[in-house]
Structures are given as structure tokens and as C-alpha cells.
Amino acid sequence: MDICIRVLKFVASPPSKSHLSLGLIRKSIGLNPDERRVDFAKAIQYLLGDEAPVLELYFEVIDDEGNPVRLDTDSAVAAQQSGVHPLTGEKVDGVESLLLPFFQPGRALVQ
């Protein structure tokens, strides 16, 4: 639970956060080598849940001009399942690697 509390404090503290990667969260809470990444992953999973909606998960993909394009969850899941690039409609090997996850503060923090 210590990791959950540290993530909560980071996300809730000023300035407001809007585009958080896993790496940024890990670095910002000072995850040390003694703490297992699996515990960090479990904490993030819990904070994404309905019981403690501290984080919301989103995806983006980079377009041909290098700009991030936000995807809705259905588009990200469809791309992952079909192997089809969500912007071009073309079949792409390893399309999952093009789907970049990020987080924003969840409804528990923005209400």
C-alpha cells in the first residue's frame, strides 16, 4: 500500500498532472531497486480500478508528422486485437508497440 499512497500523493500534488507515463510515475515516487516492479504494477492496477479511481488509462499513437493522436479505448483495443494501425488502417506487425499508454488523474481527484 505504500506505493499506492506515494502515487496518490504525486498525482494529487500541485501542479496538476495531465499526461503521465509509467516511467515518470516510477521516477517521481522514487521507486527504489528494493521495491519489486510487480508491486508497482499492482499499485497502478488498483489505482485504475473502480474502488480507487485515482488514475485513468489512455492511449495515443504518433502520426506521420510526429504528432501524438489520442485514441479512445475501443480504438486501442481494436488495433491491438486486429493488428491494424488505428490511423492508417493498414496491417502492421507489432502494432502494440505503436500504442503508447499514458495516465491522467482519475475522477476521484478531479471531482
Plain-language structure description:
With 111 residues, the chain is an alpha+beta fold. The chain contains five helices and three strands; from the N terminus they run αααββαβα. The chain has a three-stranded antiparallel β-sheet. Strand 1 and strand 2 form a beta hairpin.
Label this structure with key terms.
single chain, alpha+beta, 111 residues
For this entry, what is the oligomeric state of its chains?
single chain
Give helix % range. 25-40%
Indicate the proportion of strand residues.
15-25%
Query: Spatial order of the strands in the main sheet?
Result: 2-1-3
Task: Report the C-alpha radius of gyration, rounded.
Answer: 15 Å
Shape: elongated
Average of the residue pLDDT scores: 90
Please mark out the parts with pLDDT under 50 across 5 or more consecutive residues, or reply none: none
Biggest beta-sheet profile: 3 strands, antiparallel
Number of strands: 3
- List SSEs in N-to-C order: HHHEEHEH
Give the N-to-C terminal Cα separation.
23 Å
Number of helices: 5
- Determine the structural class based on helices, strands and strand pairing: alpha+beta
Write the layout of secondary structure elements.
Layout lengths: L1 H11 L9 H7 L8 H12 L6 E8 L5 E4 L1 H10 L17 E6 L1 H4 L1
Helix pairs in contact: 1-3
Give the gist of this structure.
With 111 residues, the chain is an alpha+beta fold. It is built from five helices and three strands; from the N terminus they run αααββαβα.
